[in-house]
């Protein structure tokens, strides 16, 4: 190969490498955030179910126990258009925060170990891990509308535009419920289904112990099971892809929604948990790093912002992102753009 040919070849190789490798656009260790402290204990909470539980202060995961959780253990959030709702799993309650002024505007007792929230079909839905049920809540008042039985260990919720889907962690199944509580079917998935999302006309279920994600049709048929990183946790769709956070792998896996082809695995940080799309970029809660990462759809890290201690999940209100901090009994809030 002559010198000119070698230079052309080298330039082509460098260009191909640059296109295939995500780059860091900008990274910073901290971002000014509003941190909203939640009330300690359930004092003043409105009782919906009358159940109580001991405070164990820990969260069991696929590879041991995460310690350092606050006595309340805020774990998950949902937005209903007016309020951000926070499930505090170790005191069996949900707390609502008025978005317009960051004011805590009510606390309500639910079932035992609420670990998943979803706003859908004009109601707030609460999955109670140890009560084996889902509660239907009127968000304007916090009143209990109904309670529906699920499988063993409900811990993930999704809505397909018509029906509710519940991931049952301990029975390795997902259940399809009508919004009036009728059981429309129970379907086997992988080991310890922990999160579920509806995207591209399919349900995507992360199998935390299986290091995989299962794709289901809205009729419950398995359309595919695809490998992810270690400890598949959160799942979200954006563009033509599905993104899975890998809690122990410290990564996010991108899969093509049409056929599950792996389009890349990207390092993000320790304890990659909740993941969402704000319509432009992706956000990933990093439980082990006490941080949240903002990244592009192609896996490039834009920024890494400090949060409270131990964020698990994340919600978007159209302007800001909200992260409950399981170790500091608070919610961190910052502008998405």
Write a compact overview of the structure shown:
The chain has 337 residues and is mainly β. It is 5% helix and 50% strand.
* DSSP strand tally: 31
Oligomer: single chain
Biggest sheet: strands, sense, closure? 5 strands, mixed
CATH architectural label = 7 Propeller
User: Which descriptor suits the 3D outline?
Assistant: globular
Total domain count = 1
Write out the strand line-up for the largest beta sheet, numbering strands in chain order.
2-8-7-6-5
The third-level CATH topology is: Methylamine Dehydrogenase, Chain H
pLDDT averaged residue by residue: 86
Q: Determine the number of helices (DSSP H or I, runs of at least 4 residues).
A: 1
Cα distance, first to last residue? Answer: 50 Å
CATH class annotation: Mainly Beta
Please identify the structural class as seen in this structure: mainly beta
Q: How helical, in percent, are the residues?
A: under 10%
Computed Rg? 20 Å
Write up this protein.
The chain has one helix and 31 strands. With 337 residues, the chain is mainly beta. It has a five-stranded mixed sheet, with no helix packed on it. A four-stranded antiparallel sheet has the order 1-31-30-29, with no helix packed on it. Strands 9-10-11-12 form a four-stranded antiparallel sheet, with no helix packed on it. A hairpin with a 3-residue loop joins strand 5 and strand 6.
